[in-house]
Every structure is written in C-alpha cells, then in structure tokens.
Amino acid sequence: MKALLNGASIALLLSGTAALANDSVTAAIAKPEQWAIQTGDYANTRYSTLNQINKDNVKDLRVAWTFSTGVLRGHEGSPLVIGDIMYVHTPFPNNVFALDLNNDGKILWRYEPQQDPNVIAVMCCDTVNRGLAYADDTIFLHQADTTLVALDAKTGAVKWSVKTGDPAIGETNTATVMPVKDKLIVGISGGEYGVRGYAAAYNIKDGSLAWKAYSTGPDKEMLVDPEKTTALGKPIGPDSSLKSWEGDQWKIGGGTTWGWYSYDPELNLVYYGTGNPSTWNPSQRPGDNKWSMTIMARDADTGMAKWFYQMTPHDEWDYDGVNEMILTNQQIDGKDRKLLTHFDRNGLGYTLDRETGELLVAKKFDPAVNWTTGVDMDPKSETYGRPAVVAQYSTSQNGEDENTTGVCPAALGSKDQQPAAFSPKTNLFYVPTNHVCMDYEPFRVAYTAGQPYVGATLSMYPAPNSHGGMGNFIAWDNTKGEIKWSLPEQFSVWSGALATAGDVVFYGTLEGYLKAVDAETGKELYKFKTPSGIIGNVMTYEHKGKQYIGILSGVGGWAGIGLAAGLTNPNEGLGAVGGYAALSDYTELGGQLTVFEVPG
Q1: DSSP structure string for 22-57
Q2: Domains in the chain, start-ordered, CATH in brackets?
Q3: Residues carrying an active site annotation
Q4: Which pTM value belongs to this model?
C-alpha cells in the first residue's frame, strides 16, 4: 500500500500521462533531494524518501547553518529547494530570497514587494504566508494584498503580476498556490470580513484568468452541474447553495479557500476545502449555508465540480474546512481504494473515496471533542453524513447574547491549517493538533465592506480533565479512525509535520523546539530549541550527497497572535490571546531559518 505520489514513484505513475500534470513540477517532485512543492508532493503526503537521517542517528542532529529573514511575525510554510538554490519567503511584506547552497547560502537575489500596510488591518489572524510555488523555471508568490507574482527563478525578475482580489472589501491572501498543468490554483482569505469565497485558476504563461469557482451562490458561478455534481452519491440539484441561505446572505457568506490544495493527475481532480460561513453569529444565517465547510473535488482544466461533501452544515463554531486533503492508495475492508483523508477543524478525521466522494470514515481525532456525538454513517438515513449536534454546545440553539461554555474544540479547531504527514511505510498519518476548548457568545453584527464581520466573543483554554496542555501530536489510522499513539504538548502543535523513509517524523512546537520522533512508536529521539516559536512546516533536502532538515521559526499565527501583534486583552485575537498568554514565558518574536545535519 503506497501513497499516491511519493518521491521517485511519481515518474512511474505519470508515465504516459505526463500531460496531466505540469512536467516541470512532476520532474522536480520526482527528485527527493529537492523540496519542490510546499506539501512535498501533489498528494500532500509531506513524505520524503530520503533516509540518510534515520531513527538511529537523528540523535546526533546539529545545526548546520541559519538565515535571518529580517522580518518578525508568524513564519508559516517552508522554503523550497530547486537544484542548488533555496527559496525562502517571509510573512508581510512577503519578501523572497534566493540562496546559493553552493556558496554558504549567499543571497543570489531578493524580491521586496511594496505593499500598502493597510492590508495588515484586514488580515484575520496574523500576517502569515504559507510559501512559494515553483513551475517552469518560475517562482510564484501570492502576496498579502492578493497580488499574484511570477518571478524568474534564476534572476528574480518579475515576469508578470496580476491582482486576484480586493483588500478594500476584506479580501487578502495567506496561502500558497499550486501549479497544475498550465495553471496556478489560487484561493482567497477574508471569511471574517464577509468575503464570498472562491477558488480560481490563472494561466502560468501570462497570469490571465482561466476559471473561477465560487463557494456559494448560483450554480453557474459555482461551476456546478446540478445533475452531475454529487454530494454523498446523489446529484446536488439546482440552486443547492441558494436554497440553503436566507435572502442574499450568500453574497457575503464566507466559504473562503485559504488552505491547501492537492491534485490527482489520473483523475485530473483538484481537492480543497472551504471555510466558515459569515458571520460567526449563526442566528443571522439560518440554513445549511452551502457550500461553506465543504470538501470540493473539481476538474483541473475547467473548474467544474465533480463532488462535494459538507462536513459542518450551518457551522456554529467557526470550524473552517480548509485543512489539507491527503491522497493515498490503501485498502479498506480488503479492497484497494483511492482515498482522501482530511483532519477537520471540527475535530473529526474523515476518509473518503476521492473518485466518488463516498464517505468511509468519520471519527474524532481528539477525545475532547464534545459538540457532536458523531456522524450518521447510514446511507439510507435522512441525516446520512451529518454530524449530530449536542444541544448543550449549540450556539445556534442557545441563541444570541448567550454564552455557550465548554465547547470542544475551540474555534481554531482540533487542527488548523498546520499540515499532517503520511508515511507509506507505516500507513499512519502524523497529525499536529490543538487540545483547546472555548466559551462562545454570538451577537448581532452589521455588514460593512472591509470591516470585521465576526459577531461573536470567544475565550479559549486547555481541554479540562486532560493532561493540562493545549496540544497533542498524534499518529492516526485513517482506515479505522483510530489514534495509534499521542504525545501531549504544553501548547498547540502549530507546525507542519514531515515523515521520512528514515522512520523519523519531525514537527515543531510553539515554544520553539524542533522534535524528532520514532514513526512507529512516537518515542522522542531528538529536540532542539530554535530562537522563536515554530509555526512553520518541516522540510528536507539533499545537497552534495548530504541530507538536511529545515524549519522556519517565528512565533505567530492565530495561536501566537498575542505575541506577534502585541495584544493583551484576553478576548482579542478572536479569543486566542488569553488562551495562549503563557506562551510569552517561553519564546519571543523572531524570523529565522534553521538547517540541521548529522555530522560526517
């Protein structure tokens, strides 16, 4: 049983079908010595076939070299390595550096965009950016102000740039982009500002728009076919989104797409999730609010939707559905299946057939989750695929101006965007998680373009009657929906994981530790404290025959917004400031890349 796209196997898998994926990206991913895409491969496995650093020698890991980005605030994403050049990005103002790996990391070129700093005021949860993309000798950056830029990979010269959104109405960007064939798949942020979410494809050659698919609204604008686009095996029918909103609320309905994208070249489908509906006050938007909180499968060429699955209808807790979709080929009940695994903010780990959208597994990946008793898995039931909501924790049933207490997970979810990893050697997923609960009080709010459209006051705290910390790093069996082992952490694990053929899994902590654990048992094998809290994603590459591990440190993101933005009111940062107040006792602002090696 193997992951869909891993290391050298990608070339074999794509032989004869190279036209189905961008040739330059396919070739770059097929070289394990490179880190050519933020998610490791098109399947989002974050798995490397490099094994020079392994569970026997990882204890000897040491710092090889470092690089200061010159920028504070939260550093998400990771560098790319193409050939002998490493490409490093920063949070706002989204500077880019090309470093010569043959010359002690000498800066070959830098790109320093001039953005209006007013965009910071409409960025929800820190000024993060989740990284660069590479295709056709070009580096792609989607800036905070929604400027999409193509840079010559050798010189840094701007080939073209195009604006994909409008910060004046709250549209910003924090995500990376994904090159597929001759297009770039691009998303949008701004659900807390009443933005109407969409995914779009821009032509790599010149930046022209190829297609645009909204998350909510009329069928034509959503790029759906009422009779062919399905949800849980049935056609969605005409006006499926419009019928689930009151009046024109869908026009400011959220469903933004600021997470990760994956791609299956054999099916030619792009997968991603949509975010929370606007506003956070559920009483102002009765109905299922389709298609927010939804896993979407779309044709890469046209954007036409093949299937949807809405995980949290009529979201009442801000459980965005944007987390990564990891594609694997595994067996379930003795049958080979093309799977999609997704760890949602709502605390449920989902396994679906990625070809049909059939729901196979939906289980809690944090035992603290209490807002639901589980998902109805009976295909014959009228509520098939829906989670059963516990009335005590329903902010909608409890009503406006009522403080619903003890909801688990908190709005930042049992996992936010920090991506998990999958190892085809263990058939386990390695998941950075949040172990946090909240009090949630919705209130009536009016929409004004470009102004916050939240409508809820939150406070966050560790899950009660547990280990006292706010995070766990877990190993998950996606075919059974079971936790195999769990490592408690004092704070949320806000770093993306990396699994390797050396039987080691890496992740970072908010205090600033890079940790290495045994892929089979979870036993800690190594840790090192970097200068600032880690919310970046661990990556690996090989240069001149030697394997390296790289990580960006720089505390921030939603969990670290108090430190990053200097906030002190416990309810600021949408409730995170109070919940993570103790973080300031362990780390401080920074912006640094740390690269590790094993001596010899």
Answers
A1: -HHHHHHHT-TTSB-STTSSTT---EE---SS-TTT
A2: 28-368+384-597 (2.140.10.10)
A3: 318
A4: 0.95
